[in-house]
Design goal:
- The termini are far apart.
- Helix 2 packs antiparallel against helix 4 and helix 5 crosses helix 10.
- Strands 1-4-5-9-8-7-6 form a 7-stranded mixed sheet, sandwiched between helices.
- A hairpin with a 4-residue loop joins strand 6 and strand 7.
- The protein has 12 helices and 9 strands.
- The chain has 339 residues and is α+β, with helices and mostly antiparallel strands.
- The structure holds 3,4-dihydroxyphenylalanine.
Length: 339
């Protein structure tokens, strides 16, 4: 019995010394000390030991068990430390590596141009209001003095949802909405998306943006319109900017005009940018037609006003010297990054 225990102990200690990981250590523990383990088997043989020898043999078995258990514990502690060190080694951070670069977003040229226009007009006391993109035919056309047989109402130009509802073709629709529920004085600009049945090319898109302006008060005349838009142009394109009005026709204004600014690139001499003209057209404007005031419940004998409509993309293209409108819609990060 003594020999047997010694053999078990020696084998166990050597096996434990050679073990490389905790799983295998556990297996060895079960093999020796488990219910069906070697030492347990030895204990079962106790019944064959003479009664007077039993305490001595029992003591020997316990000593062997204790020695093996102690060895298992030491090894377990060693293996656990090894595993922890391996884990920590894997988690080491090399603080000398270059940091990840965070890409910072850029504002779209349309947004920049709009923010600039809003800054200028709110500075003059204008309020920014928005209207719906899906609009009643009434606000888009009729309330703006555009008769039923006007060419703009042709399906070739306008997206119809049904007979009475359109995708608005101009932000002028917001004028009628505002006048209908506000009594003068009114000073608003209204930016937003508009839609026209156009094919895409360098200067056209079926969906683009306009900024509408409207001022209604007592004793407003064309000189007020001119002064306001001259200030606007100077703020936007620089203090040297000159303006020029050309007579035009819009059904909702009388008289109506288109406004040009002197080319801020060549100062008016004529260059590639202004196509040799020296002038660049930027907006449509005029004195609000008395019919439009009347239809929205404002007395044209008491109040007058002016209105204007600017193409936002046009301003963005000019201000940032972009020569193809499609760039504004493709949202290619390599393009947008430049702003
Ligand atoms: N709505 C016009 C257009 O889309 C632009 C415009 C012209 C707006 C004259 C106005 C205005 O308010 O008075 O071409």
């Amino acid at each position: 019995m003594k020999e047997k225990l010694k053999a078990i102990q020696e084998e166990a200690l050597s096996k434990i010394s050679d073990v490389a990981d905790l799983d295998n250590l556990y297996k060895i523990k079960v093999d020796i000390l488990g219910k069906k383990g070697q030492l347990t088997e030895v204990l079962k043989g106790m019944k064959d030991v003479a009664p007077e020898d039993r305490p001595k043999v029992g003591q020997m078995v316990n000593d062997t068990r204790k020695t093996i258990e102690e060895k298992l514990e030491t090894m377990k502690a060693q293996l656990e430390e090894k595993a922890l060190n391996a884990k920590l080694a894997k988690e080491v951070i090399d603080v000398t590596l270059p940091a990840n670069k965070n890409e910072i977003g850029h504002k779209h040229p349309n947004t920049l141009a709009l923010e600039e226009m809003e800054r200028i007009f709110t500075g003059m006391g204008y309020e920014v209001v928005e209207g719906p993109e899906i609009e009643f035919d009434y606000y888009n056309f009729e309330a703006l003095n555009i008769p039923a047989d006007h060419p703009a109402k042709d399906e070739q130009d306008t997206f119809y949802i049904d007979k009475n509802i359109v995708l608005r073709t101009q932000t002028s629709s917001v004028q009628a909405r505002v006048m209908e529920n506000t009594q003068p004085p009114i000073r608003i600009i209204s930016p937003g998306r508009v839609f026209r049945s156009d094919a895409v090319d360098a200067t056209h898109s079926p969906s683009f943006h306009q900024v509408e302006g409207l001022a209604i008060d007592k004793n407003i005349n064309f000189a007020d319109l001119k002064g306001t838009l001259a200030d606007f142009a100077k703020e936007l394109f620089g203090p040297e900017t000159k303006i020029k009005f050309r007579p035009h026709h819009f059904p909702f204004t009388e008289p109506s005009a288109e406004m040009d600014v002197s080319c801020f690139k060549c100062g008016g001499k004529g260059c590639r940018f202004c196509k040799g003209e020296g002038w660049i057209e930027i907006l449509g404007c005029g004195m609000v037609h008395p019919n439009v005031l009347k239809m929205s419940g404002i007395d044209p004998e008491k109040y007058q006003g002016f209105a204007f409509g600017v193409g936002l993309e046009r301003i963005a293209l000019l201000k940032y010297e972009i020569d193809d409108m499609r760039l504004l819609y493709e949202n290619d990060a390599r393009f947008l990054k430049q702003f």
